């Protein structure tokens, strides 16, 4: 009888332990919100493709963490910091969202990062470029996964200067991301002995670049640096081609160009562009296999590096939750993400540094000519691989409060 009671007690204790472990995940589920541009200039490079990437990460992890199901929701921040902030607060306070992923548009990302810190949740940023997210605006609750303005500047900017492009004029999107990209690239140009002849700022989502391009042309700079992204970049490149700027001898440097931009421009227009990316679908067998699955569910479109970054960040987050068994303390979850090496089929091996910066190789790429391309989405030649320990800003140079 005593033995039976002991056995019953052990079973009850085991059941209570399992129940408490399950209850550690808020609301009996893990909820991740993908917050991005669903309808405007960044929708193609993030949008529903990022939602798909997050769902693929959950699927590849097994659909649950320690028996707790994972749910993906999404919303459109419309590239407005106030709208993004309101959604983030609603998600955290009412809908029990545990982590917010993607968030292209640096102004929105900086606002969401601060709210996430205030609420002690987790921000998995893939889409925003500003290096301030791991610099003077770093947070113990934020992980910046894919790329940043420092990495772009030191990839594309360095390559262009080293190839003779030693005088620059910047055409810059007039918000946090554009300013950061211009500033980081200008610093590289000057460090390598080049000079910056001027800049002009344009509103986000501009349709007519004629006056801005004429200023750039009139500067006499060898290089016109496009410190913008999405349709702003593609519109500027198309109109520069129409004005004969490149034919007249000036070079366009697309400082943030996505594969969807090249697809939209076509190889005839985009050929020869030098750019820096964190991911390309055709890098190796693993990236090709994953991208094939993605494209089959994405209308045939290959993933951008932002969408790939959402996959990598969400997958690593789920791995960390499996270790902590608890999503109630965002700082502790991010600390676990930093304690574990990163590894996935898209970015390979890396780490999340103390400042929240995820490290992995970056790639200097050049757009192929139409004759070089062997098929759909075969757009890039890999010029060089930038090792993970060189691709991102040194820890002691960012001004992050978490770096001791």
UniProtKB/TrEMBL annotation:
UniProtKB keywords: Amino-acid transport, Signal, Transport
GO biological process, one term: amino acid transport
Pfam families noted in UniProt: Peripla_BP_6
UniProt xrefs under CDD domains: PBP1_SBP-like (cd06327)
Segments forming domain Leucine-binding protein: 29-368
InterPro entries membership: BCAA_transport (IPR051010), Leu-bd (IPR028081), Peripla_BP_I (IPR028082)
Signal peptide: 1-23
PANTHER family: LEUCINE-SPECIFIC-BINDING PROTEIN, PERIPLASMIC BINDING PROTEIN OF ABC TRANSPORTER FOR NATURAL AMINO ACIDS
Name recorded for this polypeptide: ABC transporter substrate-binding protein
Organism whose genome encodes this protein: Marinimicrococcus flavescens
Phylogenetic placement of the source organism: Bacteria, Pseudomonadati, Pseudomonadota, Alphaproteobacteria, Geminicoccales
